[in-house]
Amino acid sequence: MRDLGPKGMSLITYHNEMHQQARKAFVICAYYPALVGACALGERILNHLILDLRGFFKTSSHDRRVHSRGSLQDWSRAVDVLDEWGVLTAGAGQLFLELGELRNRSVHFNPETYQTMRVDALAALQTLGKIIGKQFGYFGGQPWFIENTPGAQFVKRDWEDAPFVRTYIIPRSGFVGPLYGMELSPDGHWRHLDYDDYGDADLDDIQFAKAMRERDPTMVVTREMIEKSLLEQAAAKDRGVQCR
Fold this sequence. Notes:
Blueprint: H1 13-27, H2 31-53, H3 65-68, H4 75-84, H5 92-107, H6 113-136, H7 163-169, E1 181-184, E2 190-193, H8 205-213, H9 223-243
Helix pairs in contact: 1-2, 1-6, 2-4, 2-5, 2-6, 4-5, 5-6
């Protein structure tokens, strides 16, 4: 576990599950399953990126096979396509290529694999963790997140329509103001609590980050505040009926 280091966290559920399975294999000294599992997950991520996002890039200079095939096995080609589309974060493409080299050396017959399984498995898992953290993480300095908002991440306005953000991040995000709160639902999921209206003010990314850092804790929305507001609205409505 010490050799593996921290696990790169992804906002995509299957990344975390499959990555954890490969890490568990390494911990129990099942080095070849760990190695192959890490490489296979890397290839699956590459294909997901191509297949999930290609609809946004129908005029890509790459040939029609990118838009018609069910999967790609050529990692270098896949990285070139994603780089042209502007999808990959800085350094992620090179990490994919490094993992691809391990994949080719390990999956295809190579007698040296028997002597290097632990070293290769560790390298594959660590490289995969870096890829996941860089591309799908939420505290890794990704270019689409507003800077200087400790404890939470918010999408920059200019990135809201980027294909990667619209496909992977927006569906897993909430639309909130700087005074939003959080609560744990009975089924174990977190949900946002927020004011219905913040007025006509329009904050840019820097102003929003400042408002988040300097927000008054007593103004952060809670379930009690919402229930109190509903009771007050109901009472006001009753008073209105009585006046009529």
